[in-house]
Protein backbone atom coordinates (compact mmCIF):
# COMPACT_ATOMS: atom_id res chain seq x y z
CA UNK A 1 0.00 0.00 0.00
CA UNK A 2 2.83 2.38 0.77
CA UNK A 3 4.38 1.76 -2.59
CA UNK A 4 1.08 2.35 -4.42
CA UNK A 5 0.31 5.69 -2.71
CA UNK A 6 3.93 6.99 -2.75
CA UNK A 7 4.13 7.42 -6.52
CA UNK A 8 1.30 9.98 -6.88
CA UNK A 9 2.68 11.97 -3.96
CA UNK A 10 6.07 12.16 -5.60
CA UNK A 11 4.51 13.36 -8.85
CA UNK A 12 2.55 16.07 -7.02
CA UNK A 13 5.72 17.17 -5.26
CA UNK A 14 7.54 17.48 -8.57
CA UNK A 15 4.68 19.46 -10.08
CA UNK A 16 4.66 21.86 -7.13
CA UNK A 17 8.39 22.38 -7.37
CA UNK A 18 8.10 23.05 -11.11
CA UNK A 19 5.31 25.59 -10.60
CA UNK A 20 7.26 27.26 -7.82
CA UNK A 21 10.40 27.43 -9.99
CA UNK A 22 8.40 28.92 -12.90
CA UNK A 23 6.85 31.55 -10.64
CA UNK A 24 10.27 32.47 -9.28
CA UNK A 25 11.70 32.87 -12.79
CA UNK A 26 8.75 35.05 -13.82
CA UNK A 27 9.23 37.22 -10.77
CA UNK A 28 12.95 37.53 -11.54
CA UNK A 29 12.28 38.48 -15.16
CA UNK A 30 9.71 41.07 -14.05
CA UNK A 31 12.21 42.60 -11.63
CA UNK A 32 14.89 42.77 -14.38
CA UNK A 33 12.44 44.42 -16.80
CA UNK A 34 11.45 47.00 -14.21
CA UNK A 35 15.11 47.81 -13.48
CA UNK A 36 15.90 48.23 -17.19
CA UNK A 37 12.84 50.43 -17.72
CA UNK A 38 13.67 52.67 -14.78
CA UNK A 39 17.39 53.28 -15.53
CA UNK A 40 16.89 55.91 -18.43
CA UNK A 41 14.38 57.77 -16.32
CA UNK A 42 16.90 58.07 -13.54
CA UNK A 43 19.55 59.41 -15.97
CA UNK A 44 17.27 62.16 -17.37
CA UNK A 45 14.83 63.46 -14.78
CA UNK A 46 13.61 66.30 -16.95
CA UNK A 47 12.37 63.89 -19.63
CA UNK A 48 10.73 61.41 -17.21
CA UNK A 49 7.57 63.41 -16.87
CA UNK A 50 6.00 65.58 -19.59
CA UNK A 51 5.28 69.15 -18.88
CA UNK A 52 8.50 71.16 -18.88
CA UNK A 53 8.92 73.15 -15.65
CA UNK A 54 6.06 71.35 -13.93
CA UNK A 55 7.84 68.04 -14.51
CA UNK A 56 10.99 69.47 -12.99
CA UNK A 57 9.08 70.66 -9.93
CA UNK A 58 7.40 67.28 -9.61
CA UNK A 59 10.76 65.53 -9.82
CA UNK A 60 12.23 67.81 -7.12
CA UNK A 61 9.21 67.12 -4.90
CA UNK A 62 9.60 63.40 -5.42
CA UNK A 63 13.31 63.65 -4.55
CA UNK A 64 12.48 65.51 -1.35
CA UNK A 65 9.89 62.96 -0.39
CA UNK A 66 12.36 60.17 -1.06
CA UNK A 67 14.94 61.88 1.13
CA UNK A 68 12.45 62.25 3.97
CA UNK A 69 11.11 58.70 3.78
CA UNK A 70 12.52 55.85 5.87
CA UNK A 71 15.12 53.44 4.70
CA UNK A 72 13.08 50.86 2.79
CA UNK A 73 11.33 53.45 0.66
CA UNK A 74 14.63 55.29 -0.09
CA UNK A 75 16.21 52.09 -1.30
CA UNK A 76 13.20 51.36 -3.49
CA UNK A 77 13.38 54.87 -4.96
CA UNK A 78 17.02 54.36 -5.75
CA UNK A 79 16.06 51.12 -7.46
CA UNK A 80 13.44 52.75 -9.75
CA UNK A 81 15.34 56.04 -10.27
CA UNK A 82 14.13 59.59 -10.04
CA UNK A 83 11.10 58.78 -12.16
CA UNK A 84 9.50 56.63 -9.41
CA UNK A 85 8.61 57.82 -5.88
CA UNK A 86 6.80 56.65 -2.72
CA UNK A 87 3.72 58.62 -3.59
CA UNK A 88 1.81 59.72 -6.65
CA UNK A 89 3.37 62.52 -8.78
CA UNK A 90 2.32 66.08 -8.10
CA UNK A 91 0.00 67.53 -10.77
CA UNK A 92 0.50 71.02 -12.28
CA UNK A 93 -1.43 73.58 -10.31
CA UNK A 94 -2.16 71.20 -7.40
CA UNK A 95 -1.83 72.55 -3.82
CA UNK A 96 1.30 71.87 -1.84
CA UNK A 97 1.53 68.55 0.03
CA UNK A 98 0.35 68.61 3.65
CA UNK A 99 2.48 67.75 6.60
CA UNK A 100 0.74 64.43 7.02
CA UNK A 101 2.19 61.80 4.78
CA UNK A 102 -0.07 60.08 2.33
CA UNK A 103 -0.59 56.39 2.51
CA UNK A 104 1.88 54.46 0.42
CA UNK A 105 0.76 53.47 -3.06
CA UNK A 106 2.26 50.96 -5.38
CA UNK A 107 5.23 52.27 -7.36
CA UNK A 108 5.12 52.10 -11.16
CA UNK A 109 7.23 53.08 -14.14
CA UNK A 110 6.27 53.80 -17.76
CA UNK A 111 8.00 53.71 -21.08
CA UNK A 112 8.58 57.00 -22.97
CA UNK A 113 8.84 56.89 -26.83
CA UNK A 114 10.71 59.81 -28.41
CA UNK A 115 10.62 60.07 -32.28
CA UNK A 116 14.07 60.31 -33.89
CA UNK A 117 14.94 61.94 -37.24
CA UNK A 118 15.54 59.60 -40.18
CA UNK A 119 18.93 61.17 -40.91
CA UNK A 120 20.80 63.71 -38.86
CA UNK A 121 22.48 66.45 -40.92
CA UNK A 122 26.22 66.52 -40.68
CA UNK A 123 28.14 69.45 -39.30
CA UNK A 124 29.55 70.38 -42.76
CA UNK A 125 26.09 70.55 -44.35
CA UNK A 126 24.79 72.71 -41.52
CA UNK A 127 27.83 75.00 -41.91
CA UNK A 128 27.32 75.29 -45.69
CA UNK A 129 23.64 76.08 -45.27
CA UNK A 130 24.42 78.74 -42.68
CA UNK A 131 27.11 80.27 -44.91
CA UNK A 132 24.72 80.31 -47.92
CA UNK A 133 22.04 82.03 -45.84
CA UNK A 134 24.56 84.63 -44.66
CA UNK A 135 25.76 85.30 -48.23
CA UNK A 136 22.17 85.64 -49.48
CA UNK A 137 21.38 88.02 -46.62
CA UNK A 138 24.48 90.12 -47.44
CA UNK A 139 23.53 90.18 -51.14
CA UNK A 140 20.01 91.33 -50.35
CA UNK A 141 21.35 94.02 -48.04
CA UNK A 142 23.80 95.30 -50.71
CA UNK A 143 21.05 95.30 -53.36
CA UNK A 144 18.74 97.23 -51.08
CA UNK A 145 21.53 99.73 -50.38
CA UNK A 146 22.20 100.19 -54.12
CA UNK A 147 18.50 100.73 -54.82
CA UNK A 148 18.33 103.26 -52.05
CA UNK A 149 21.39 105.13 -53.42
CA UNK A 150 19.91 105.06 -56.95
CA UNK A 151 16.62 106.44 -55.67
CA UNK A 152 18.46 109.22 -53.85
CA UNK A 153 20.48 110.09 -56.97
CA UNK A 154 17.35 110.16 -59.13
CA UNK A 155 15.63 112.37 -56.62
CA UNK A 156 18.61 114.77 -56.55
CA UNK A 157 18.76 114.85 -60.34
CA UNK A 158 15.03 115.58 -60.62
CA UNK A 159 15.38 118.41 -58.14
CA UNK A 160 18.37 119.82 -60.04
CA UNK A 161 16.42 119.65 -63.31
CA UNK A 162 13.47 121.40 -61.70
CA UNK A 163 15.72 124.15 -60.40
CA UNK A 164 17.34 124.54 -63.85
CA UNK A 165 13.92 124.75 -65.53
CA UNK A 166 12.76 127.39 -63.05
CA UNK A 167 15.96 129.38 -63.54
CA UNK A 168 15.79 129.24 -67.35
CA UNK A 169 12.08 130.14 -67.31
CA UNK A 170 12.75 133.15 -65.13
CA UNK A 171 15.65 134.30 -67.28
CA UNK A 172 13.61 133.94 -70.45
CA UNK A 173 10.75 135.89 -68.95
CA UNK A 174 13.05 138.70 -67.80
CA UNK A 175 14.77 138.79 -71.18
CA UNK A 176 11.50 138.91 -73.13
CA UNK A 177 10.10 141.62 -70.86
CA UNK A 178 13.19 143.78 -71.59
CA UNK A 179 12.92 143.44 -75.41
CA UNK A 180 10.90 145.80 -77.60
CA UNK A 181 7.68 144.55 -79.08
CA UNK A 182 9.22 144.41 -82.52
CA UNK A 183 11.77 141.86 -81.36
CA UNK A 184 9.26 139.92 -79.33
CA UNK A 185 7.11 139.39 -82.41
CA UNK A 186 9.33 139.75 -85.46
CA UNK A 187 6.66 138.48 -87.79
CA UNK A 188 4.29 135.61 -88.33
CA UNK A 189 5.85 132.22 -87.80
CA UNK A 190 5.48 129.93 -90.76
CA UNK A 191 5.37 126.17 -90.46
CA UNK A 192 7.81 125.16 -93.17
CA UNK A 193 6.84 121.52 -92.85
CA UNK A 194 3.10 122.04 -93.19
CA UNK A 195 2.71 121.81 -96.91
CA UNK A 196 4.58 120.89 -100.02
CA UNK A 197 5.49 117.47 -101.36
CA UNK A 198 8.36 115.57 -99.82
CA UNK A 199 10.35 115.44 -103.04
CA UNK A 200 9.92 119.14 -103.95
CA UNK A 201 13.18 121.14 -104.20
CA UNK A 202 11.18 124.29 -103.37
CA UNK A 203 10.46 122.86 -99.91
CA UNK A 204 14.17 122.46 -99.20
CA UNK A 205 14.77 126.07 -100.29
CA UNK A 206 11.97 127.24 -97.99
CA UNK A 207 13.52 125.36 -95.08
CA UNK A 208 16.90 126.93 -95.79
CA UNK A 209 15.25 130.38 -95.90
CA UNK A 210 13.57 129.68 -92.55
CA UNK A 211 16.93 128.73 -90.98
CA UNK A 212 18.55 131.89 -92.36
CA UNK A 213 15.65 134.02 -91.04
CA UNK A 214 16.08 132.49 -87.59
CA UNK A 215 19.79 133.27 -87.66
CA UNK A 216 19.03 136.89 -88.68
CA UNK A 217 16.57 137.21 -85.79
CA UNK A 218 19.22 135.81 -83.45
CA UNK A 219 21.74 138.40 -84.69
CA UNK A 220 19.24 141.26 -84.22
CA UNK A 221 18.37 140.12 -80.72
CA UNK A 222 22.05 139.90 -79.77
CA UNK A 223 22.55 143.46 -81.10
CA UNK A 224 19.52 144.88 -79.28
CA UNK A 225 20.09 143.14 -75.96
CA UNK A 226 22.76 145.60 -74.58
CA UNK A 227 20.35 148.53 -75.07
CA UNK A 228 17.24 146.98 -73.53
CA UNK A 229 18.40 144.57 -70.87
CA UNK A 230 19.48 145.69 -67.40
CA UNK A 231 22.71 143.78 -66.81
CA UNK A 232 23.18 145.06 -63.25
CA UNK A 233 19.84 143.72 -62.09
CA UNK A 234 20.09 140.39 -63.88
CA UNK A 235 23.61 139.55 -65.09
CA UNK A 236 22.79 136.04 -66.34
CA UNK A 237 19.60 136.29 -68.49
CA UNK A 238 21.43 137.40 -71.67
CA UNK A 239 22.41 133.93 -72.91
CA UNK A 240 18.87 132.65 -72.35
CA UNK A 241 17.41 134.10 -75.58
CA UNK A 242 20.17 132.79 -77.86
CA UNK A 243 19.90 129.44 -76.12
CA UNK A 244 16.16 129.28 -76.77
CA UNK A 245 16.61 130.38 -80.38
CA UNK A 246 19.43 127.92 -80.88
CA UNK A 247 17.23 125.13 -79.59
CA UNK A 248 14.47 126.18 -81.98
CA UNK A 249 16.96 126.34 -84.83
CA UNK A 250 18.33 122.90 -83.90
CA UNK A 251 14.80 121.56 -83.93
CA UNK A 252 14.21 122.95 -87.42
CA UNK A 253 17.54 121.60 -88.60
CA UNK A 254 16.56 118.17 -87.26
CA UNK A 255 13.30 118.36 -89.18
CA UNK A 256 15.21 119.39 -92.28
CA UNK A 257 17.60 116.46 -91.85
CA UNK A 258 14.70 114.05 -91.47
CA UNK A 259 13.17 115.48 -94.65
CA UNK A 260 16.47 115.05 -96.51
CA UNK A 261 16.76 111.43 -95.34
CA UNK A 262 13.23 110.71 -96.49
CA UNK A 263 14.01 112.27 -99.88
CA UNK A 264 17.18 110.16 -100.11
CA UNK A 265 15.19 106.98 -99.46
CA UNK A 266 12.69 107.95 -102.16
CA UNK A 267 15.57 108.72 -104.51
CA UNK A 268 17.05 105.26 -103.93
CA UNK A 269 13.68 103.65 -104.58
CA UNK A 270 13.28 105.69 -107.75
CA UNK A 271 16.77 104.72 -108.86
CA UNK A 272 15.90 101.04 -108.47
CA UNK A 273 12.75 101.54 -110.50
CA UNK A 274 14.62 103.50 -113.13
CA UNK A 275 17.30 100.80 -113.31
CA UNK A 276 14.66 98.16 -113.94
CA UNK A 277 13.05 100.32 -116.59
CA UNK A 278 16.47 100.96 -118.14
CA UNK A 279 17.09 97.24 -118.39
CA UNK A 280 13.77 96.76 -120.14
CA UNK A 281 14.58 99.58 -122.52
CA UNK A 282 18.00 98.06 -123.19
CA UNK A 283 16.37 94.75 -124.07
CA UNK A 284 14.08 96.50 -126.53
CA UNK A 285 17.02 98.41 -127.99
CA UNK A 286 18.97 95.16 -128.34
CA UNK A 287 16.10 93.67 -130.29
CA UNK A 288 15.94 96.74 -132.54
CA UNK A 289 19.70 96.71 -133.04
CA UNK A 290 19.53 93.05 -133.98
CA UNK A 291 16.98 93.89 -136.66
CA UNK A 292 19.09 96.83 -137.87
CA UNK A 293 22.21 94.66 -137.96
CA UNK A 294 20.36 92.05 -139.97
CA UNK A 295 19.26 94.68 -142.47
CA UNK A 296 22.72 96.24 -142.70
CA UNK A 297 24.49 92.94 -143.24
CA UNK A 298 21.88 91.55 -145.59
CA UNK A 299 24.12 92.24 -148.59
CA UNK A 300 27.37 91.24 -146.90
CA UNK A 301 30.20 89.99 -149.04
CA UNK A 302 30.54 86.80 -146.97
CA UNK A 303 27.29 84.92 -146.83
CA UNK A 304 28.28 81.95 -144.61
CA UNK A 305 27.20 82.80 -141.04
CA UNK A 306 30.37 81.38 -139.50
CA UNK A 307 32.93 82.77 -141.96
CA UNK A 308 34.43 85.41 -139.65
CA UNK A 309 36.71 85.80 -136.68
CA UNK A 310 37.27 88.29 -133.85
CA UNK A 311 40.82 89.64 -133.64
CA UNK A 312 42.26 91.43 -130.59
CA UNK A 313 45.79 92.60 -131.56
CA UNK A 314 47.08 93.99 -128.25
CA UNK A 315 46.50 93.45 -124.54
CA UNK A 316 44.27 96.18 -123.08
CA UNK A 317 41.04 96.65 -121.16
CA UNK A 318 38.86 98.12 -123.92
CA UNK A 319 39.00 95.72 -126.89
CA UNK A 320 36.38 92.97 -126.75
CA UNK A 321 33.36 91.45 -128.48
CA UNK A 322 29.91 91.07 -126.99
CA UNK A 323 27.39 88.38 -127.80
CA UNK A 324 24.02 90.01 -128.31
CA UNK A 325 21.83 87.17 -127.14
CA UNK A 326 20.61 86.33 -123.65
CA UNK A 327 21.24 82.84 -122.36
CA UNK A 328 18.52 80.76 -120.71
CA UNK A 329 18.93 78.85 -117.48
CA UNK A 330 21.26 75.92 -118.14
CA UNK A 331 21.69 72.67 -116.25
CA UNK A 332 24.39 71.47 -118.64
CA UNK A 333 26.37 73.00 -121.49
CA UNK A 334 29.10 72.42 -124.04
CA UNK A 335 31.10 75.39 -125.34
CA UNK A 336 33.43 74.98 -128.32
CA UNK A 337 35.64 77.53 -130.06
CA UNK A 338 38.72 77.95 -132.24
CA UNK A 339 41.51 79.91 -130.54
CA UNK A 340 44.86 81.26 -131.65
CA UNK A 341 46.82 82.96 -128.90
CA UNK A 342 49.38 85.70 -129.57
CA UNK A 343 50.28 86.40 -125.95
CA UNK A 344 53.90 85.33 -126.31
CA UNK A 345 53.81 82.81 -123.45
CA UNK A 346 52.79 85.26 -120.69
CA UNK A 347 49.36 83.74 -120.11
CA UNK A 348 46.48 83.37 -122.54
CA UNK A 349 44.15 85.72 -120.64
CA UNK A 350 40.38 85.27 -120.84
CA UNK A 351 38.90 83.87 -124.08
CA UNK A 352 35.37 84.41 -122.74
CA UNK A 353 33.47 85.29 -119.55
CA UNK A 354 29.77 85.14 -118.66
CA UNK A 355 28.41 87.22 -115.74
CA UNK A 356 24.94 87.59 -114.26
CA UNK A 357 23.49 90.03 -111.72
CA UNK A 358 25.05 89.23 -108.38
CA UNK A 359 27.76 86.92 -109.77
CA UNK A 360 30.49 88.22 -112.08
CA UNK A 361 32.15 84.79 -112.45
CA UNK A 362 29.22 82.63 -113.48
CA UNK A 363 31.30 81.02 -116.30
CA UNK A 364 34.91 82.06 -116.99
CA UNK A 365 37.70 80.46 -119.04
CA UNK A 366 40.96 81.99 -117.86
CA UNK A 367 44.71 81.48 -117.97
CA UNK A 368 46.60 84.03 -115.85
CA UNK A 369 50.40 84.28 -116.02
CA UNK A 370 52.15 80.94 -115.80
CA UNK A 371 49.21 79.21 -114.08
CA UNK A 372 47.33 76.45 -115.94
CA UNK A 373 44.09 77.24 -117.71
CA UNK A 374 41.12 77.32 -115.32
CA UNK A 375 37.37 76.96 -115.66
CA UNK A 376 35.31 78.97 -113.14
CA UNK A 377 31.64 78.23 -112.54
CA UNK A 378 29.94 80.26 -109.79
CA UNK A 379 33.41 81.11 -108.42
CA UNK A 380 34.30 77.38 -108.15
CA UNK A 381 37.56 76.49 -109.95
CA UNK A 382 38.79 73.48 -111.93
CA UNK A 383 42.20 73.37 -113.63
CA UNK A 384 42.14 72.22 -117.24
CA UNK A 385 45.04 70.36 -118.91
CA UNK A 386 44.98 72.58 -122.01
CA UNK A 387 47.85 74.45 -123.68
CA UNK A 388 47.72 77.21 -126.34
CA UNK A 389 51.30 78.48 -126.19
CA UNK A 390 52.46 77.56 -129.70
CA UNK A 391 50.65 80.50 -131.39
CA UNK A 392 48.70 78.09 -133.61
CA UNK A 393 44.99 77.40 -134.09
CA UNK A 394 43.49 74.96 -131.57
CA UNK A 395 39.96 73.66 -131.18
CA UNK A 396 38.82 73.81 -127.53
CA UNK A 397 35.66 72.15 -126.16
CA UNK A 398 34.49 72.14 -122.54
CA UNK A 399 31.45 70.14 -121.37
CA UNK A 400 29.82 70.46 -117.92
CA UNK A 401 26.69 69.20 -116.19
CA UNK A 402 25.21 70.28 -112.87
CA UNK A 403 24.69 66.64 -111.86
CA UNK A 404 27.67 65.97 -109.56
CA UNK A 405 29.53 68.85 -111.28
CA UNK A 406 31.03 66.58 -113.97
CA UNK A 407 33.27 68.28 -116.54
CA UNK A 408 35.38 67.27 -119.57
CA UNK A 409 38.02 69.20 -121.50
CA UNK A 410 38.89 68.53 -125.17
CA UNK A 411 41.71 69.97 -127.28
CA UNK A 412 41.82 69.36 -131.03
CA UNK A 413 39.15 66.67 -130.69
CA UNK A 414 40.96 64.64 -128.01
CA UNK A 415 39.85 64.30 -124.38
CA UNK A 416 42.56 65.87 -122.22
CA UNK A 417 40.99 65.59 -118.77
CA UNK A 418 37.78 65.31 -116.72
CA UNK A 419 36.63 65.75 -113.15
CA UNK A 420 33.66 66.24 -110.86
CA UNK A 421 32.31 68.38 -107.99
CA UNK A 422 32.64 71.61 -109.98
CA UNK A 423 29.69 73.74 -108.77
CA UNK A 424 27.60 70.59 -108.37
CA UNK A 425 23.83 71.09 -108.54
CA UNK A 426 24.23 74.77 -109.42
CA UNK A 427 22.21 75.84 -112.48
CA UNK A 428 23.68 78.49 -114.78
CA UNK A 429 21.62 81.64 -114.23
CA UNK A 430 19.92 83.30 -117.22
CA UNK A 431 19.88 86.87 -118.62
CA UNK A 432 23.59 87.54 -118.23
CA UNK A 433 26.23 89.13 -120.46
CA UNK A 434 28.71 87.09 -122.53
CA UNK A 435 32.00 88.85 -123.39
CA UNK A 436 34.74 87.52 -125.67
CA UNK A 437 38.31 88.55 -124.86
CA UNK A 438 37.86 90.16 -121.42
CA UNK A 439 37.19 89.06 -117.84
CA UNK A 440 34.27 90.85 -116.15
CA UNK A 441 34.64 92.03 -112.56
CA UNK A 442 31.15 93.51 -112.70
CA UNK A 443 28.17 92.84 -114.92
CA UNK A 444 29.34 93.80 -118.40
CA UNK A 445 32.42 95.82 -117.44
CA UNK A 446 35.34 96.68 -115.18
CA UNK A 447 37.86 94.84 -117.34
CA UNK A 448 41.48 94.17 -116.28
CA UNK A 449 44.17 94.49 -118.96
CA UNK A 450 46.32 91.82 -117.30
CA UNK A 451 43.52 89.28 -117.84
CA UNK A 452 42.71 90.24 -121.45
CA UNK A 453 43.00 87.77 -124.33
CA UNK A 454 45.34 88.57 -127.23
CA UNK A 455 44.74 86.68 -130.47
CA UNK A 456 41.87 85.38 -132.62
CA UNK A 457 38.56 83.74 -131.72
CA UNK A 458 36.29 81.92 -134.17
CA UNK A 459 33.40 79.44 -134.24
CA UNK A 460 32.21 80.13 -130.67
CA UNK A 461 29.16 77.83 -130.20
CA UNK A 462 27.16 76.89 -127.11
CA UNK A 463 24.86 73.91 -126.56
CA UNK A 464 22.53 73.13 -123.63
CA UNK A 465 23.81 69.55 -123.31
CA UNK A 466 27.05 67.63 -123.30
CA UNK A 467 28.31 66.68 -126.76
CA UNK A 468 29.62 63.20 -127.37
CA UNK A 469 33.33 62.65 -128.05
CA UNK A 470 32.49 61.74 -131.65
CA UNK A 471 30.66 65.04 -132.17
CA UNK A 472 33.57 66.97 -130.68
CA UNK A 473 36.03 65.14 -132.96
CA UNK A 474 33.91 65.84 -136.04
CA UNK A 475 33.86 69.58 -135.28
CA UNK A 476 37.61 69.65 -134.64
CA UNK A 477 38.39 67.79 -137.89
CA UNK A 478 36.00 70.00 -139.90
CA UNK A 479 34.17 66.85 -140.96
CA UNK A 480 30.99 67.36 -138.96
CA UNK A 481 30.30 71.09 -138.47
CA UNK A 482 27.66 71.75 -135.87
CA UNK A 483 26.14 75.05 -134.72
CA UNK A 484 25.17 75.61 -131.09
CA UNK A 485 21.46 75.23 -130.34
CA UNK A 486 21.65 77.92 -127.63
CA UNK A 487 24.23 80.27 -129.16
CA UNK A 488 25.36 79.76 -132.77
CA UNK A 489 28.32 81.60 -134.30
CA UNK A 490 26.48 84.16 -136.41
CA UNK A 491 27.60 87.57 -137.52
CA UNK A 492 24.48 89.38 -136.32
CA UNK A 493 24.92 88.02 -132.79
CA UNK A 494 28.51 89.23 -132.27
CA UNK A 495 29.50 92.90 -132.01
CA UNK A 496 33.08 94.17 -131.68
CA UNK A 497 34.06 97.12 -129.44
CA UNK A 498 37.10 99.24 -128.65
CA UNK A 499 39.11 98.43 -131.79
CA UNK A 500 38.58 94.68 -131.90
CA UNK A 501 38.19 93.60 -135.52
CA UNK A 502 35.65 91.33 -137.12
CA UNK A 503 37.08 89.99 -140.38
CA UNK A 504 36.12 87.34 -142.89
CA UNK A 505 37.72 84.02 -142.09
CA UNK A 506 37.05 80.35 -142.76
CA UNK A 507 38.63 78.57 -139.85
CA UNK A 508 39.20 75.23 -141.58
CA UNK A 509 40.83 76.81 -144.66
CA UNK A 510 42.74 79.34 -142.58
CA UNK A 511 44.07 76.66 -140.27
CA UNK A 512 45.30 74.71 -143.26
CA UNK A 513 47.08 77.79 -144.63
CA UNK A 514 48.58 78.62 -141.23
TrEMBL record:
Protein name according to UniProt: Neuronal pentraxin receptor
Source organism per UniProt: Zalophus californianus
Keyword Secreted: no
Lineage, top ranks: Eukaryota, Metazoa, Chordata, Craniata, Vertebrata
Cofactor requirement: Ca(2+)
Source species, domain of life: Eukaryota
SUPFAM superfamilies named in the record: Concanavalin A-like lectins/glucanases
Domain Pentraxin (PTX): 306-508
Coiled coil (UniProt feature): 271-298
Molecular-function annotations in GO: metal ion binding
This protein's UniProt keywords: Calcium, Coiled coil, Disulfide bond, Glycoprotein, Membrane, Metal-binding, Receptor, Transmembrane, Transmembrane helix
Region (Disordered): 72-97, 176-195
Chain ranges passing through the membrane: 12-39
